[in-house]
Design goal:
Rossmann fold; six-stranded parallel beta sheet; globular
Length: 333
Amino acid sequence: MKALTFKRYGKSPEIGFAEVARPTLKANELLVKVHAASVNPVDNMVPTGMFKPVLHFKLPATLGSDLAGVVTEVGSNVTRFKVGDAVFASIFDLGTGSIAEFAVVPESAAAPKPSNLDFVQAASIPMVGLTSWQTLKERLNLHAGQKVFIPAGSGGIGTFAIQLAKYLGAKVGTTTSTGNVQLVSRLGADEVVDYKKQEFEKVLHGYDAVLGTVRGDAIEKSLGILKPGSKIVSIIGPLDAAFARTKRLNFVLTFVFGLMSRKIMRLAKKRDLTYSFLFVRPDGAQLNEIGKLLETGRVQPVIDKVFPFEQAKEALEYLAKGHAKGKVVIQMQ
């Protein structure tokens, strides 16, 4: 089968199409004919080797984690799905990829495709949906009346997280460029800071939570907008020792990650705040709940651009420019 792969880590990963063997199934897995796959910033980071200590691939490896498609085969222990079912899933951190004609999906990671979405729309959801769910609901325990800061509101995570936070009854602050102010306001953002004109840390105050999505010093700056007792959850780092222990990494990596997060931990503690790093995990049950929200229209996909399968590499390059409004999707057929 045809798949978008990378051959090595580093500056010359040799990303391109390759013929690879069609996957064989374990008892708890589905074989899915992929109709669409979306790309995420991590897909551009993986070939650099940035996540080599924590994401394990057998090279050459297929890229991508988000997919929507139709089940063509089921393992002997699968009970929730049958051949012909339309599903969507994230297979992030499972050692396989989704930008291919077929993908293996554990039954526990899959959910029925929302009936009101086509495959392109459904494929845009898993990574951003699960990341938003696991940060806002699980880690931050966001509830009605609280204020959450979600920077980069027009990006893939931002466009979904704003909608989910509003569904949970929270007030949302965000940053975006001048041209995207209307978009994030339409999605439900209550306080919108045009970062080309203002600095968010001088405008926003009295927040209960921050979802860290922007690299650089944005995390440290966000400390000043939070009330004592508030929480920061970052999906872009710095990584922390708690994450290393969750992944059962060795002592050296646990120590290194602890050092990486030492400064932000110290600064947060001085203000009576808590910091943690979150690495999204596949979860079909959560994705099923997200699917129900999508079917009610309470949350909607935001798609910037759709590329044909033959231009999958160009889709990654387009995403890397950092200007996408919502998600970038690859359509297989």
